[in-house]
Write a structure and sequence with these properties.
The complex is a heterodimer. Chain A is an alpha/beta fold. In chain A, 29% of the residues lie in helices and 26% in strands. Chain B is α+β, with helices and mostly antiparallel strands. In chain B, the strands form 5 sheets. Chain B has a 7-stranded antiparallel beta sheet, with no helix packed on it. Chain B has a 4-stranded antiparallel beta sheet with strand order 5-6-1-7, sandwiched between helices. The longest helix of chain B is centred in the middle third of the chain and has 22 residues. Classes of the chains: A alpha/beta, B alpha+beta.
């Protein structure tokens, strides 16, 4: 900026805004989709744009399949349209888990809007997700699986999502990797300590394009109200039992 | 209007089939098939050379080998013969959509209104026979106004006649009984003893005594060949509702060429569908190979479609299953199932917007069609059952699911269910108390909380419900919540709670 200052009296704020826009354009994150409001996650997290951007792929990492599935279902329900749930392989141990519509209905996901897809091969699962993201009539797609997910594969999914405008979620166990996903979340359980009614989760934003990582936050999912609530001033989830999310 | 039927008699089908499947058999040596009948081995079919040497079906195998020492013998296989006959009936669909087998060795083609496409019925018949001869299949044919008449003419005469309609009785009258009526040998011999050798001998007799002496079957056959009573032809494949055909001058082999032909066929068929105000639910591509085999690939759609681009994408994968061999000489695209489509609903493909309800529904239907080509895709419908495995029914993805029952939201159900519940080791202080200790995946957990039981009684009116279940929601020290149940003294992990 020093050379610009010396040459001419430039409006620094305008230059910064133009540069930001250019970077965003190159990254493809802020592709102008003003018709697509972001999907709200939880009040008070301070996410860029106010929530998860649609027309983008996000990662949800979890070691507790119940938590991850419920969190994904809550987000998908908020997209407000037809949703595809693609399951592939056995990502969490040797048990074959199937999405169960009565439980997902509790997350706000109407079974009439839900389409279940089962893909045995990981390649088929990725293909199905890409096709679904590309379809303008679909508002949300989740892929629960644990296959190889590299930069190329996720970039393809990201491009497909930008074409179709759907929210894509990659629900998987394990650690954060090199992917082209716009954000990467980790969700795990925290014991409620008071009955088993409303689940509490430990939510962490590991990576966000065009923003800062954040968290961990402790959130409570109010089932009856259908909202996620940020717990104020409670930090007991930093106990060692919670840092390893589950067994 | 009366129908016109072409009958083919494949007199040496069994031996021709063997020669086709074993091309290195010496063509100048006679060939016959045999089968065991009790302790005897009898000839079943003989080819022209063997018949010329005096061998007949039904003769003893040992005699045949004595008469013709260089006779090639193969076991008879009527099942394979039937398959070949069926595949030939499919092949003959190049002439007419209605073709039927006439077991054991005949074909019937309903060529009503098809003759002029080939320059007359005689030219059509000549074309069929010439092509069959090129495949190495000996055939005789006839055209007549009734299927049975044509079959009788094809069997009893060897000049491939074309008979006009209305004179069936006169045409079959001079035919010998054996070929025309296909009677069993004992009946034929009994008739011959009475001096009845030709059809007109029988026609001159009173019907009542004839039926009493030889049974109704004889009269039925007689009525069929004289055209007095017609039986419906059972086609090997139902006739398509709409069809587009390409005859190819050069056989196509490569995938690129096949794709190009398919493109033209799709444009053609979709144009016809549009003009008819229809959309296709099921489309089949038929490909006639140079050697006479007919291959078929089919795709189905959830909504009635007439978008060439969409159908092309659906065909992309199944087309890989075609085996062109030496090439396809003819391809046809058939709309097997069609439905009416309102005119406005099918927008231009690719410009489907987010807003329009009908366009979005169409885009979703096309997506599900594509996914269903490879994967298991289903919607779910609630069922009136409290048993977890029975509470959801898989539904065709294009169906409209019924409304969600209100009870679903109220219950703290798991979000993920194990397809097969896994056994767990659980310690409960008393047999009716919630569990306090749990061993899962080789690790022991002291439970932080447990709620339950939710007692589900088996549905005795339904098979396979198993014993009564007590469901508990338990929380591990890490906060992970599981849905476990006690069923008949065993503990099972059945689901993951949020």
């Amino acid at each position: 900026m020093s050379s610009a200052d010396s040459d001419a009296p430039l409006d620094q704020a305008a230059v910064l805004a133009a540069l930001r826009a250019r970077v965003a354009r190159q990254e493809g994150a802020g592709r102008a989709r003003p018709d697509l409001a972001p999907v709200p996650v939880c009040e008070g997290l301070g996410l860029p744009g106010g929530g998860l951007s649609r027309a983008a792929v996000h990662e949800v990492l979890t070691d507790a399949p119940g938590c991850g599935a419920a969190f994904s279902a809550v987000l998908l329900a908020r997209t407000g349209g037809t949703v595809l749930w693609i399951a592939s392989g056995r990502p969490w141990g040797q048990d074959e888990l199937v999405a169960w519509p009565p439980g997902l209905a509790r997350c706000g996901l109407d079974p009439a809007r839900l389409v279940l897809v089962r893909a045995e091969r990981w390649g088929d699962a990725l293909w199905a997700m890409e096709e679904a993201l590309r379809c303008p009539a679909v508002t949300g797609v989740v892929l629960a699986g644990n296959g190889r997910l590299d930069l190329t594969a996720t970039r393809r999914l990201q491009l497909a999502a930008e074409t179709g405008g759907a929210l894509g979620l990659l629900l998987r166990p394990g650690a954060v990797g090199h992917t082209a996903a716009v954000t990467c979340w980790r969700v795990g359980p925290i014991g409620a300590g008071h009955g088993l009614e409303d689940p509490r989760w430990r939510l962490e934003l590991l990576r966000a394009r065009g923003g800062r990582p954040g968290g961990p936050w402790a959130v409570t999912w109010r089932v009856a109200a259908g909202t996620l609530e940020l717990d104020e001033g409670r930090a007991e989830f930093d106990a060692p039992s919670a840092s390893r999310a589950s067994g | 209007m009366t129908g016109r039927f072409l009958a083919l008699h494949l007199s040496e089908l069994a031996t021709d089939r063997i020669r086709r499947s074993e091309p290195d058999l010496p063509p100048d040596r006679p060939l016959a098939t045999w089968a065991a009948s009790g302790s005897r081995r009898l000839l079943v079919a003989v080819d022209r050379a063997a018949a010329g040497a005096g061998l007949r079906p039904g003769g003893a195998l040992a005699d045949a080998q004595a008469i013709l020492p260089d006779l090639i013998l193969r076991p008879a296989d009527p099942v394979r013969d039937g398959e070949v006959l069926r595949s030939l009936a499919h092949w003959a669909r190049r002439y007419t959509p209605l073709t039927a087998t006439d077991p054991p060795d005949g074909l019937i083609l309903d060529i009503t209104g098809c003759g002029h496409l080939w320059g007359g019925e005689a030219a059509l018949l000549a074309d069929v026979l010439a092509r069959l001869r090129r495949f190495g299949i000996a055939a005789r044919g006839a055209v007549a106004g009734a299927a049975a008449t044509a079959a009788a003419l094809a069997r009893a005469r060897d000049d491939n006649p074309v008979a006009v309609s209305g004179i069936e009785e006169a045409v079959v009258a001079p035919l010998p009984l054996g070929g025309a009526l296909r009677l069993p040998q004992p009946v034929l011999e009994a008739l011959a003893r009475l001096g009845l050798r030709q059809v007109h001998h029988l026609l001159a007799l009173p019907r009542g005594p004839l039926a009493r002496r030889f049974g109704r079957d004889l009269l039925d056959r007689l009525d069929a060949v004289t055209g007095r009573r017609t039986a419906p032809v059972q086609p090997v494949a139902p006739p398509p509702e709409l069809v587009a055909v390409r005859e190819l001058l050069e056989p196509v082999i490569t995938r690129t060429a096949i794709d190009a032909v398919l493109d033209r066929l799709l444009d053609d068929l979709c144009g016809r569908l549009r003009r008819a105000g229809l959309g296709a639910r099921r489309v089949a591509l038929l490909a006639w190979r140079v050697d006479g085999a007919v291959q078929e690939v089919a795709v189905g759609t959830g909504l009635a479609m007439r978008e060439p681009a969409h159908l092309r994408r659906l065909f992309a994968e199944p087309l890989g299953g075609l085996e062109p061999g030496l090439g396809f000489e003819r391809m046809a695209l058939e709309a097997r199932v069609t439905e009416g489509v309102a005119a406005g609903i099918q927008g231009g493909f690719g410009v489907v917007g987010r807003g329009g309800g009908a366009e979005a529904a169409m885009a979703l239907a096309q997506l599900l069609d594509r996914l269903r080509q490879r994967l298991l895709v289903q919607r779910v419908a609630p069922l009136a059952s409290h048993w977890p495995e029975h509470s959801v029914a898989a539904l065709d993805p294009h169906g409209t699911p019924p409304a969600m029952p209100p009870g679903w939201v109220a219950q703290p159900w798991p979000v993920l269910l194990l397809r097969r519940p896994q056994p767990l080791e659980v310690v409960a202080l008393l047999s009716d108390e919630p569990p306090s200790l749990l061993r899962w995946r080789g690790q022991a957990y002291r439970l932080r909380g447990a709620e339950g039981p939710l007692r589900l009684e088996p549905e005795w009116w339904r098979a396979g419900s198993g014993p009564r279940r007590d469901y508990y929601r338990v929380e591990l020290p890490s906060g992970t919540r599981l849905w476990v149940c006690r069923a008949g003294g065993r503990w099972l992990l059945h689901g993951h709670l949020p």
